[in-house]
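User: Fold this; C-alpha cells only.

Assistant: Input:
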Amino acid sequence: MALWQQKLLSSCLLILCLANLVSPHSRPYTVPSVTRLTDSFPRVPIAGSFSKAFGASNVKFLSNGSMATLALDKISGSGLVSQSRYYYGFFSAAIKLPAGLSSGVVVAFYLSNADKFPHNHDEIDIELLGHDKRNDWVIQTNMYANGSVSTGREEKFYFWFDPTQQHHYYSIIWNNYHTVFFVDNVPVREFIHSTTYPSIYPSKPMSVYATIWDGSEWATHGGKYPVNYKYAPFVVSFAEMELSGCISDPTASSSSCSKANPSGLDPVNGPEFTKLSQQQIAAMDWARRKLMFYSYCNDKQRFKVLPPECH
C-alpha cells in the first residue's frame, strides 16, 4: 500500500473514531416549540411532600426543602417516596444528573404501588441510565400493569442536550385516557388507554419515587459496564417538583380522590389532557424519529409474538 493510501486510511479511521465519541446532544438539533406544561402547575416543597425511602444518610434537603440531592456510594443508593398516593395526575421534576463516568448508575423518577400490591403492582417509569466513556446518558421509559413485569414495555431515547450541565424537566401525565412521557415539555412517548386491552394499563393509586441506585447488572450495555465506585459518590439533584392530580383517599374506594391542584388546569379530566395537541403530536414525532433508538414493539427477537398494543 502506498504511503499516501496508508495516511488516508489512518485519517479515515481517526475520523470514524472521533465520530463515535461525538455526543448525540452535540449535534445541532432544532427543538420543536411546545406548550410548557411545567409552567401550569404549582411546585411543592420536596421536604414537605416526600419521605426518605432508603439510604437516608445519602439524602440532603436544600434551599428550605425546595431541592434535594440523592447520592449513590459503595454503601447504598438513596431515594424519596411521596407522602401521598395519587390516582392520576401530572408529575414532574427538574433533574440534574451526575457528571463524569457513570456506567451502571440509574436515576429514576417514577410511580409505583409495589409496596401495596406486591403481586399485581402498577408502575410508570422514567429511568435515566448512566454511560460509559463513549456514550451519553440515555432515557428509558417503561410501564407495568397488574404485575406484568415479564412484559417490559421499554423505549429508549438519546438526549438532545447534556443532562449533567443543568436541571431539565422530566414529566408524566397519567389519566384515564393516556400516559405521556415528557422531556423538557417535549412529549417523547404516548401510551393510550385502550378499552380493548384494559389489563395492561396502570389503574391503581401509586406513590411517586425519586431514586438513585446501582443498576450494574443491566443499565449500561446490558450490564457490560458496571458502576465504577472509584468515581463515587454519584450525586443527582432534584428541584421544581410538581405533583398535581387526585390524591387517593385510603379510607374510601380506589377511585375516590381529592384534587391536589383545585385551581387551574385539571390533568385528570381537563379536556386539554385527554389527547395531545397537533403541536405536541408533531413534537413527539420529531423526538421519536430523531432520538429513539429502541422500542419493545420493534424487538422481534425478544418477543415471538409482539404485545397486543404493538399491532
